Amino acid sequence: MTQVSLVLDSGAITALGRRDRQTAARIAALRQRGLWPPIVSTAVLVDSLTGNRVRDALANRTVGLSLVYPLDEPVACRAAQFRGRARAGSAVDAIVVATAELLEALVITVNPDDLARLSQQADGVSLLPT
After folding, report:
1. Is the terminal CB of the chain with fewer CB neighbours within 10 Å at N or C?
2. How far, in Å, CA of 37 to CA of 22, rounded?
3. Which of the 8 DSSP states describes residue 124?
4. Chosen CATH of 5-129 out of 3.40.50.300, 3.30.70.1050, 3.40.50.1010, 3.40.50.150
5. Three-state secondary structure readout of 49-75
6. Complete DSSP assignment for the chain
7. pLDDT tens-digit map of 51-110
């Protein structure tokens, strides 16, 4: 399975919104690999945003550069299967993995341990730490 896109978890949204050279280089490398713009599930928006423009500035910067993918019933059901099998992870983490599986995508995360057990339940999902 060829991975051609990138799905972000909540922590990655904030991490990739930073305005520094290291983050700019990271985004440039992702673009060069054809992994930009990233995909963000609507469920991740709920998890990562507060509704306060000031506190959400870094996250909103990344979201503005991303493709937002709606949470639908098949992805939600697949995420529930992953949580049941893995007996680990949050609902949002499971949705990230299910979205990545559906889209044949990598997951970029600041907490690979949180997603490792869930991604082991999915077909072809790999994690890319930030």
Report:
1. N
2. 18
3. S
4. 3.40.50.1010
5. CCCCCCCCHHHHHHHHCCEEECCCHHH
6. ----EEEE-HHHHHHTT--SHHHHHHHHHHHHTT--S-EEEHHHHHHH--S-TTTTHHHHHHHHTSEEE---HHHHHHHHHHHHHHT-S-HHHHHHHHHHHHHTEEEEES-HHHHHHHHTTSSS--EEE-
7. 999 999 999 999 999 999 999 999 999 999 999 999 989 999 999 999 999 999 999 999
Quote the pTM value. Answer: 0.93
Strands 127-129 and 105-109, by their bridges, are parallel
**Radius of gyration of the CA atoms of the chain, in A:** 14
- The first and second tokens of residue 128, run together, are 């890319």
Cβ atoms of residues 1 and 104 within 8 Å? yes
The structure tokens listed for 93 are 């983490």
